[in-house]
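Appendix B: complex inputs.
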Amino acid sequence: MYISKLSIPRRTFLRGVGTALALPLLDAMVPALTPTVKTAAKPVKRFGVVYVPNGITMAAWTPKASGAAFELTPILQSMAPVRERMLVISGLNGAGGFGHTGAATEFLTGVKVETGAIAGPSIDQLIAAESGKETQLSSLELAIDPRDGTGNCDGQSCALSNTISWRSSTLLLPMENDPRIVFERLFGDSGTSDSAVRRERLQLDRSILDSVTASVADLQRGLGTGDRHRIVEYLESVRDVERRIQRAEEQSARELPVVSQPGGIPRTFEEHARLMYDLQLLAFQCDLTRVTTFMMGRELSPRTYPEIGIFEAHHPLSHHQGDPIKIENITKLNTYHVSFFASYLEKLRNTPDGDGSLLDHSLFLYGAGMSEGNTHDHTNLPLMVVAGKDFVPGDRHLMFNGDPAANLLLSIADKMDVPIDTLGNSRGKLLLHTLL
Amino acid sequence: MVRQTLARWNGSITIVAVGWALWSLPTSVSAQGTPNASRTATSPVPAVATNSTEAGAAAPQRALLDQYCVACHNQRLRSGNLALDTPDVTKVGAEPEVWERVVRKLRLNAMPPPGRPRPDAASSQALVSFLKTEIDRAAASHPNPGRVDTFHRLNRAEYKNAVRDLLLVDADVASLLPADDSDRHGFDNTASMLSVSPVLIERYLSAAKKISRVAVGMASGGVSRDTYQAIIYEVEDDQANASDELPFGSRGGVAVRHTFPVDAEYEISVRLRRNGYDFIVGSAEPHQIEIRLDGQRVSSFTVGGEIKGTPAPLGFAGNLPGSPEWERYVTTYDDKLKVRVPVKAGARSVGVSFVSRPTKPEGIRQRPETVMSQSLTWDNPYGNPAVENIKIDGPFHAAGVSDTPSRRRLFICQPSGTNASEEAGCARKILAQVARRAYRRPVTDAEVDTLVGFFKAGRGKGFDAGIELALERILTDPNFLFRVERDPATAAPGAAYRISDLNLASRLSFFLWSSIPDDELLEVAVREQLREPATLAQQVRRMMAHPKASALVENFAGQWLQLRNIERVAPNERAFPEFGELLRRAMRRETELFVEHTLREDRSLLELLTANYSFVNGRLARHYKIPNVYGEQFRRVTFDESADRGGLLGQGSLLTLTSYPTRTSPVLRGKWVLENLLGSPPPPPPPNVPGLPERGEGGKAASVRERLEQHRKNPPCSTCHAPMDPLGFALETFDAIGKARRVTEAGSPVDAKGAFPTGEVFEGLAGLRSFILGHRDAFVETVIEKLLAYALGREIETHDHPTIRKIEQLARTTDYQWSSVILGIVTSAPFQMRTALPRDGREVAGVAAPARGGQR
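Resulting structure:
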């Protein structure tokens, strides 16, 4: 006998796997934290991406009206409390890549993948390159699904559908799905929050990396340019970590909240998703990073969602072939995903930051790399921007006419004070203030 | 684990060695032409054709192509992106990538498509032979061994094994390091996919610290906790033991193997299973639970059965609570299940189990649970309690330094007094030895100086602490993390050169052991004796007989057969209630043991298909309906004639991972066979493919096979599906979890007949087996191709096919024994040689191109 989530009474769901899962993190710690670097004059901007795979039922996503008076469609219902911050954006096209790997790769890069693992730098990384100069982590890439196993995905390596974040045209960034590991990235693995111990560890790490950099110089000697890319990639990654360590050392006197480390990956999707969102909020609030990229599922995700009555795997379900029951189910799934995002935004709104809230100073992009999952349609992508009131006027539905989605990425970069001229197949910034 | 003697390998080596002596490597090689850049659309073709075939010999081939192929495969139509009218069939060697595609399709007679006129078998084979001969001839005079990246990062499995062999430490890499990405053929040791992100560097630093501490036997700076989950979603007979490590007369529970890093006290605690309301299951009656260490009982508790306050009503929907006292009891009474014991360092078994009771109350029948279902209620206080997890915390009060195998291996000297220079000398000795093994080559004084510098930096906390810091440095060095192969200064640009013995030793050990070379192999390489054929063959033989060669099964077979995906399958629990964790593990183990057996016994590759035996334990035997097999140990069973099993195709693992959660999929099975056994993978399907109708004509319940008829009726579908579906039909005698069946999901009798487009027909597993054996060259070449890709760590390119054919020909003389195939690979040009970078520094095919575009 199933009891649906809705009729579960008063108890919190699971006490966790072994050690506390620290759910919910925030209620415990909001009073304890002091806001850090912000002043009213120049609030720090945050950027987040939330990605859902296998497309969205466009008929239940796209509002009919454009402009300011649009109705909240079924999938977007849970966004009601934050609608004055949201922009629904229609009519933008992807880069024309193939299937699911194309959808994932081009979402933040605007690059159509031809062969092999060659895409382009993604917008989150370009923004992180700037904002990361002041934070310990330049960005956080998170996911819920683990990486795929062996075999290929749509004819390409599955690596391409497991991530949407690219450091460069050849370096894709792995997305972490274990909250315990994410926690370690944020707070270190010293097992203690004692700052003296942490600082000592940081110094040791830095001396190791300094020494390693010298070894690399030896290795690089006499190599042709064609030979170097891997070792250069290694060197850049090492330098990245060194910078992080340096900032961590500078900021090591800062008080960090006492939160218990999650024990591992929670058993249900709901807990896992909430925990990952809480970690992102924690990262923003402690200013450990200003860029987060989160895949709520990887492309081709085979996950089932029995907690909302969906027993067919996500990917086959998205190929509904017009079956009304399947369409209803996939729509329910899309709605479910949005609801997590909406509660995250609520929490951001309730978290003080400088002179306002975290939501006031953040910009989010929510969407999918394909519209109709059934036909792998890469046109008219389902996209939503949620931003603080100083970024763009919200509560509007903008309809464009086939412009590349990469144009939107340029606009976003502009709003994040990282002006970029081109990205992938972009043709210039979109003007988000105009109503069409 | 099945470990057999050297006898098999000894015998076959002599035969093979003769063959190898006759096959000499080209001594002077120069390939002035462009290396095969088969990734680009048009390959720049140099005028280096070999002696052109006489027009006479080529004429019938041209005529054949013109008659049967060119109608679709011409410049204008370019069907399948292939034109066969323009390439010159008298100069086959000039365009191998075109002709290899023809060879591959004709190997299975997959072209022309069904319904089109086709030549007779003899002519078709004559064309294939002609093409192969010509391509191979051209390749022989201009061999192209290809080029693996200069820096080839160790993947996670290799890192784990390297740490094990270097320091005798068992690193839990699954939690220490992120997963690696596989290439599109599913191999995760491909150099071009093994990138280095900043996250990875962070994790390497963290892992190095943890591993070094354990190696030195130091207590790490604090107490850590390891949690072991019980398999809880198991619909097995709950009364049975989960493990043979638990004593008779016990029920349920968990037994795990845990490595205790140092001599100290550790706390073992147990958490019992709860239902969706957080109530501990089985609270109504007392049960006895015991904790064991290496089989010795260290503690025993009675849990449950203490009625306190008023319980909540049974079967409630959560709106009627019990009294607060009862609620507190029933959610916390396992808090006392902990014991602190002194344990000596090492890997030990920790077991927790209940004492079984002779009678079992019936209780309310519960629905089966699996990982994918979220059954929230299980409010049966009269049921049996179960263990949810065991936690091991520690170390507490670590008493000095423990004597562990890793310390004994590491500390080849000990400083006797506090004489600083004597100490530094001892440290130098220790670190030089570790570095040599870690970097897989003799180390320079400068490199050892660096390490001694780190030793001195850490010396403040003791000699051991200094060594520990230096170990961290070694484990983060690029010379450890990467295999480095540099073009020698003497190599002409674009020319093929023989790699050094040290590089050859690394390639060999990472191929056969997924790990670093051992001291003996390293020594042979340092003395530059590895290149001698007899020495090389002897080392291969030694390495294959070593237990470490099981890495070949885990990593190669695991990925070639996509066996790792078995961890992710989720058969629907209503359709297949008997599928659980124990069955999943048993299935995987069966295939691993089977492949390992054929490898160690040096059987023929064909036996992978034809074997009439396998390896099962009690759970799997029940699944296959083999009588009289009990317990969790695996043993060999022989199938008799009537049993429809034997070989890879009859194994539950592969049958399950090629099915959907609720039903079989002849398409997935056919695709698996085409891809992994016959080397002819179908292209990905177009997106707008109409879904499989749930029912047949007129709404009748129809079997999957009937519903797939569309594939054959519809011409655009049939090109790919006509060769694919029949292979899956033949396996319809097995359901979606590999059980034998006579009736399909729709209730109709199973029809396991398949007809290949060539007209070949077969039925059932036996028929499919014969069919594949009828194309044994395709099968063997496919295995060789996969094994070669794995051995090299790069994708197979067009120019590798002559090598593959050569290995196949030579292995044929020993009926395709594993040893011949492995030796064939190890002595091949791609394995022993490398193409130097061309003069303009462009990337060679097989290596990721440098960055282009973007804003950085």
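The two ends of chain B are 52 Å apart (CA to CA).
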